[in-house]
Amino acid sequence: MSHRPIVDQSAFKLSMRHLAGAVSVITVGEHAERTGFTATSVSSLSADVPSVIVSVNRTSSSWPAVDKYRRFCVNVLAADQQHVAQSFAGFGGRRGVERYDGAQWYQLATGTPALANALTVLDCELETVLNHHSHAILIGRVCAIETREDVEPLLYWRGGYRRLSSEAAVF
User: What is the pLDDT of residue 16?
Assistant: First the structure.
């Protein structure tokens, strides 16, 4: 077995801050058990059977609800929804159902809360959970989709929220 150098966690976290990503809020649960979290770790997996990958820390307060309900909704935030991202990140000590305050919600196929006026909403059934170190990798089968074309995404880069430049790049 080869000996590999151990990568410093702080250096790794700093390097990951250079990955610009769309900001999503993952909603899960029902009624008083509603909760969720802010994530930039969302990716498409397959179009053949529409599915996505979401990563969640298993020490997160949202993990038990994901495990119990086996469904979740990916709400990709529009540029004007930073307050929703902060709420679901726990700013101001918000936990559980309190994170839903200050925004409008509705339901799609699975009954999981979906954010009104999000850039896109992917309502998912949990198909597979892969545990890897501190996190669970969720593979969700997309059951319903709603998308808006008239807004820009909220992005996260270098530890802060960003917007796209108004000038489009030409290649």
Answer: 83
- Closest of 54, 21, 33, 155 to residue 99, by C-alpha: 33
10 Å Cβ neighbour count for 31? 6
Strand order through the sheet with 160-162: 21-22, 155-157, 160-162
Three-class DSSP labels, the chain:
CCCCCCCCHHHHHHHHCCCCEECEEEEECCHHHCEEEEECCEEEEECCCCEEEEEEECCCCCHHHHHHHCEEEEEECECCCHHHHHHHCCHHHCCHHHHHCCCCEEECCCCCEEECCCCEEEEEEEEEEEEECCEEEEEEEEEEEEECCCCCECEEECCEEECCCCCCCCC
| Predicted model pTM | 0.91
Confidence of residue 1 (pLDDT cuts 50, 70, 90): low
- Give the position of tokens 């993990």: 63
Q: Which domains does the chain have, with CATH numbers?
A: 19-159 (2.30.110.10)
Reported confidence tier of residue 118, pLDDT bands at 50, 70, 90: very high
**Cα–Cα distance list, 26 to 63, 76, 166 (Å):** 11, 9, 27
